[in-house]
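PROTOCOL LOG
Step 1. Enter all chains and additional molecules of the complex.
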Amino acid sequence: MGQLKAPSELEKVRQDILAKRDSNRPCITMCSGTGCSAYGSEKVFTNFQTLIKEQGLDGQIDLRRTGCHGFCERGVLVVIYPDEICYVQVQPEDVPEIVSSVKDGKIVERLLYVDPVTGDTITRESDIPFYKHQERTVFGNNRRIDPKNIEDYLALGGYSALAKALYQMSPVQVLEEVKKSNLRGRGGGGFPTGRKWETVRNTPSEPKYIIVNCDEGDPGAYMDRSIMEGNPHSVLEGLVIGAYAIGSHEGSIYIRNEYPLAVENVRIAIQQAEDYGFLGKDILGSGFNFKVEINRGGGAFVCGESTALMASLEGEVGEPRAKYIHTAESGLWGKPSNLNNVETFANVPLIINDGASQYEQVGTEGSKGTKIFSLVGKVNNTGLVEVPMGTTLREIIYDIGGGIREGKGYKAVQTGGPSGGVIPESQLDLPIDFDALTKVGSMMGSGGMIVMDETTCMVDIAKYFTTFLEEESCGKCVPCREGLKRMREILAGITEGRGRDEDIATLEHLASVMKDGALCALGQTAPNPVLSTIRYFRDEYEAHIKEKRCPAKACKELISFYIEPDKCQACMICLRNCPVDAISGGKGLIHVIDQDKCTKCGTCLDLCPTRFAAVTKLSGEPVPPPPSEREIVREKRSEQ
Amino acid sequence: MKQVTMTIDGVEVTVEEGTTVIQAASELGIEIPALCHHDAVTPYGACRLCMVEIIKNGRSRLVTSCLYPAEEGLEVKTGSEKVLNVRKGVLELLLSRCPNVKVLQDLAASMGITKPPFEAENADEECIVCGLCARVCRDIVGVSAISLVSRGTHRKIATPFEETSNVCIGCGSCAFLCPTGAVKLEDVGDKRIIHNWKVEFKLKQCKSCGRYFAPEAQLDYLRRTLDLPEDHFELCQDCRVETVEDV
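Step 2. Run joint prediction.
Step 3. Record the structure below.
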């Protein structure tokens, strides 16, 4: 394949690819994202390959490995086109049945998705509630393309936005279009992308650098990873358009080293894009030059912060510096540098192709377009979710997420990653966008969404995030380094029953010092988990401190396991399985837990047959003494 | 050089563009406390004691005065409620880390803090990890014998792999700049010992007065980097001055 030298050549290549393809021919697509890979998609794929070959079905059935579909908990996901038949939790041994069903035009009923809420069996992928309520404009192509094959991206009109920008628009027009679209940075800050580009463009210094931030590090969040792994060309296309707009000829993609598949796929994508002439010298014959290299992050959360990331690119320790002079004016190597997140770049081709006015139709007043969230935690359906800005939390958690697991009650959702905040039930109807989330004490962040149910303790969760941040703080400035340590100590004290009356006030004071005094956004937002849990769940803090009681019965030091004598059937299960032999009793003798020996591992509670449900957790109340009469008097045989 | 005029605590001051707020304040005789700052070393902004409130375009925020450049029309408050809250908080945290360091005790006392609010992990800790020693070693001395290692609460100053440094010249700049006295330097007879970096140096004896005046390694380094004659450092600095005056 020679390098393309004009938009017409690009269009011809696209037509040639389409001509080779028959959209009516059955195509078995299989997700090969990291989630499905972990479920063994590689073996599933090899089985498909072997079987299709053995049965001589080459040319009759197409086979394609695609990017992440998002419904990761149901992996391995297999979708058969053109009918869009979706099979979930596919195992390697299911392959022969699937292949013969495709041959015969039938459906393997047992592999279809069953809605856990309604019990309905659903055939088409887009009818599954998890997908049905989404609007997948940025993420949707993941399931249509093989990320290692540029032809798939071209077939869907890939790089046409780049051709349009280079041939029909001046750099300033591209810039104006992005400004008009009101695209805001998807990495967390929500800074208007067009304005950032403009500052870089207008800073009279050369060279200018443009950088993709793929140092995604929030626990439980993997939006950028899935785009990078599943549709790397969409990011590259956005990047080259951005470079053209700001006048940059050199770029970097900063990917964390823990994302090997993303590194591999983007490396292949860069090579292919260079071969086709979408990267390198004289791109698409326009005279515009741009080259990009991959840099792998060294494993620090704080390297996602712009100044730390740039220090890391320079080979220095990844530590933030004060941004009194913005990186847009003086960043990498002291030159104007533009840093945008993966998802932000992936939005750019859409804006150029459809126009800002079209793009602006979706979203809220202050936040346009869609946003990808990583919906995890105690919901029925977990995975990646793309919705228009302004969608309510309730729609995401209940309509898409299918509600809370095991019929438990909703307690809170943590948005915005470890420096975000928790949002209680009273705010579930909040239409989410950048500003609304900040207003309720949380933030958009990169789009993490961790749902918690009534068994999650809010003090414990604040402790978890504070501990994470303490470990990830670079330690440069005092408020962040020392403040997080003290916060974590206080929170640990509260959850372990050593809480003092003044603790809440001390936490709030430390929070104010960190918010105003810390050097970078990590430290300034680090108090959010503490502040938001105090704001919405102060009663839980007070119960821990004043009554030594954990309302969620989650804090080990504040709970006791207790066997209710009138429910215990002396079945010996808990007694035999207790790892520390803390349970006494015997056949016909009511079991009793020796509280001094008990390590609170919870094995007895897990194993007690649900029809007895004799083991309970107590908190804030004394454990009743063992019954004086331990022998079970069975009036009639129980129905066991 | 362009001049800019701004106000600090209501007093107008005109300084050269590029001056930092802390320097501008000191021209007015307004002292802003700072521990990680030294005029000889690149500003760093780590201790956060020097934070001041600035008002710009009607919006107020806190910045570190050691880094923030003077700007035309800038309004600076060095003792507002927000500023004092951060300063006090930082001192509480530092005093809790190093409860027995005099300079911290004095600064804390000036803010009304009489005892550390949190328990110290190690009551003998003296280092506040401000990094001045590592910065002077890298930026001014030019040998980078020590640096900041690890992150978060594990962050500390150390030689590579915490082994005896083979590049340290024993100049003692680290000890000289350390605001808390955490770097322990000792001259005993013909030896200089810097305990923190586990290094020992032979001191050069002055040919004239006989006193031990500087580590031989440092003098070698200076001769090498400044291309001085072999016998340049036969005399101590005092005797050299006398010799020059005699001539």
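Step 4. Note key features.
Chain A has a mean pLDDT of 93.
The interface with chain B takes residues 300, 302, 317, 321-322, 324, 470-479, 481-486, 489, 506, 509-510, 512-513, 516-519 of chain A (CB under 8 Å).
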